[in-house]
Design a protein that fits this description.
Elements (H helix, E strand, L loop, with lengths): L2 E5 L6 E5 L17 E3 L9 H36 L2
Length: 85
C-alpha cells in the first residue's frame, strides 16, 4: 500500500495517509471527504549519466574526507614525536 500526501479541500489541512489502491481517505482534521492528492515535489530519473555524476560527486567528498584525516594523522604523529623526544 502506498503513502500519499493529501490536502483537504475544505480546511486546507495537509496530511499523509497509507491507502489501498483506488481508495481516498477522509480528512483527519475535519472529516471532509475527497481531499486533493498532492504529487511529490522531487521526482528523479536515473540514467547512466546521472549515476556517473553522483558517483563522481561522492568520490570527491570521500577524497576530501581522506585528505583531512591524513592531515590530522600527520599532525598527531608530528606532535607525538615532538612530545616524546
Amino acid at each position: 500500500m502506498p503513502i500519499y500526501d493529501y490536502k483537504c479541500r475544505k480546511c486546507a489541512h495537509r496530511f499523509e495517509q497509507i491507502v489501498k489502491l483506488n481508495e481516498t481517505p477522509d480528512c483527519p482534521a475535519c472529516g471532509a471527504a475527497n481531499p486533493e492528492r498532492l504529487f511529490p515535489f522531487s521526482a528523479s530519473v536515473s540514467t547512466g549519466k546521472t549515476r556517473e555524476r553522483s558517483l563522481a560527486a561522492e568520490h570527491g567528498k570521500a577524497r576530501a574526507v581522506k585528505k583531512e584525516k591524513d592531515h590530522a594523522h600527520s599532525e598527531y604523529l608530528r606532535n607525538h614525536i615532538k612530545d616524546h623526544s
